[in-house]
């Protein structure tokens, strides 16, 4: 039966258009020169134009790939600071060919603590395939990616990537995209993870940690990309491709800083709180509390105390976790010990507290 036009709800036909796509479409619309109308436009023409515009929006939406903003929201419920969002969205992409795959490092952002890297990876010829993260082909797809399981209607939650590739008769690849830091900048700790786009392609995330004080200027780094093709029937490696590309990463500047001083007695199980230093970057805020350990306290004892402490807001409530996802206690320079806490904040707070057990100390 033919549907009536007034029953169609085109607003519900597509997902909301992302803000960058909306701005681009509106800029294009405003760039059209207005002319004096010369003839009446039919209702049919208006409907056709509307359908074309909606289709264009849908294409623009489909072109938007997952990135760090999505990752922090989906995995940790963290709201990325607005300045970091803008820096990530304006990052200049870098594209490399590795075997049959195209790697696009779509986001690269560095402050003095971390490097944020996200790389979209897909077959260059646009073909269909399964993309496992690194070489985890024996892992369950459903345990890693609901998106892939849903796309291919995989209802067996224990099915591995190998088994899925056999059932779907698709080629299977493992991919990895890293940022390698030189020894003088590398703290020796890094995070790797992945998300999958709705079309089944993969976005690989990597966050290496920078050694304290090692990134006052640009950081020279290496992009490492690897593709491994597996035989779905046996799990054997059919072929492997690797590429490295040298890059220079500009470091986000320090935007503001502040020193907070205790408003009263400040001793936590022997550790005397001296101050808290706050630093603001596009990536958020880092708060570092400095303590003095008493004579005779060992590094292990000092670390045990630091593990019981936290830097909180003015009311003693936890701050929103920062993008580095890492709270860093340090007792290597005993008797001076420190506790660094990242926070996903747009600005330095006016007041903070250091909390340990029943003790709360305010600092301004």
Describe the fold and architecture:
The chain has 364 residues and is α+β, with helices and mostly antiparallel strands. The protein has eight helices and 18 strands. The strands form four sheets. Strands 10, 11, 12, 13, 15 and 16 form a six-stranded antiparallel beta sheet that branches. A five-stranded antiparallel beta sheet has the order 1-2-3-7-6, with helices on one face. Strands 4-5-8-9 form a four-stranded mixed beta sheet. It starts with 18 loop residues before the first helix and ends with a strand.
Overview in brief:
By secondary structure, the chain is an alpha+beta fold.
Can you tell me the overall shape?
A: elongated
> How many distinct helices?
8
User: What is the H/E order?
Assistant: HHHHEEEEHHHEEEEEEEEEHEEEEE
Secondary-structure content class: alpha+beta
The tally of beta strands, per DSSP, is: 18
Strand content: 35-45%
What secondary-structure arrangement, pairings included, does this model have?
Blueprint (H helix, E strand, L loop, with lengths): L18 H13 L11 H21 L4 H9 L5 H8 L4 E5 L2 E10 L4 E9 L6 E4 L7 H4 L1 H6 L9 H8 L3 E9 L5 E11 L5 E9 L8 E12 L6 E13 L6 E5 L6 E2 L2 E11 L2 E9 L6 H8 L2 E4 L15 E3 L5 E8 L8 E5 L2 E5 L1
Parallel strand pairs: 4-5
Antiparallel strand pairs: 1-2, 2-3, 3-7, 5-8, 6-7, 8-9, 10-12, 11-12, 12-13, 13-16, 14-17, 15-16, 17-18
């Amino acid at each position: 039966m033919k549907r009536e036009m007034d029953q169609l709800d085109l607003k519900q036909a597509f997902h909301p258009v992302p803000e960058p796509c909306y701005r681009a479409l509106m800029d294009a619309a405003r760039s059209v020169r207005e002319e004096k109308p010369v003839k009446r436009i039919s209702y049919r023409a208006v409907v056709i134009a509307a359908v074309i515009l909606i289709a264009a929006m849908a294409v623009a939406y489909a072109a938007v790939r997952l990135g760090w903003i999505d990752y922090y929201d989906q995995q940790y419920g963290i709201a990325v600071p607005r300045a970091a969002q803008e820096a990530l969205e304006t990052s200049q992409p870098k594209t490399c060919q590795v075997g049959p795959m195209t790697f696009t490092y779509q986001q690269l952002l560095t402050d003095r603590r971390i490097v944020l890297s996200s790389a979209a990876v897909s077959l260059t010829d646009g073909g269909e395939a399964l993309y496992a993260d690194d070489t985890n082909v024996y892992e369950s797809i459903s345990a890693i990616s609901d998106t892939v399981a849903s796309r291919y209607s995989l209802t067996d939650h224990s099915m591995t990537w190998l088994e899925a590739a056999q059932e779907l008769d698709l080629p299977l690849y493992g991919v990895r995209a890293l940022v390698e830091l030189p020894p003088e900048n590398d703290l020796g700790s890094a995070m790797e993870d992945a998300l999958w786009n709705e079309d089944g392609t993969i976005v690989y995330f990597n966050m290496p940690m920078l050694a304290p004080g090692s990134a006052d200027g640009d950081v020279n780094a290496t992009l490492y990309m690897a593709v491994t093709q597996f035989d779905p029937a046996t799990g054997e490696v059919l072929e492997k491709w690797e590429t490295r590309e040298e890059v220079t990463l500009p470091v986000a500047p320090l935007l503001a800083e502040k020193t907070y001083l205790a408003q009263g007695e400040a001793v936590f199980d022997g550790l005397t709180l001296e101050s808290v230093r706050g630093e603001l970057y596009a990536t958020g805020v880092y708060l570092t509390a400095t303590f003095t350990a008493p004579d005779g306290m060992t590094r292990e004892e000092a670390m045990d105390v630091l593990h019981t402490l936290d830097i909180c807001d003015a009311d003693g409530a936890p701050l929103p976790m920062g993008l580095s996802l890492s709270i860093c206690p340090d007792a290597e320079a005993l008797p001076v010990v420190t506790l660094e806490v990242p926070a996903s904040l747009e600005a330095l707070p006016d007041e903070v507290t250091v909390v340990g057990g029943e003790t709360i100390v305010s600092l301004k």
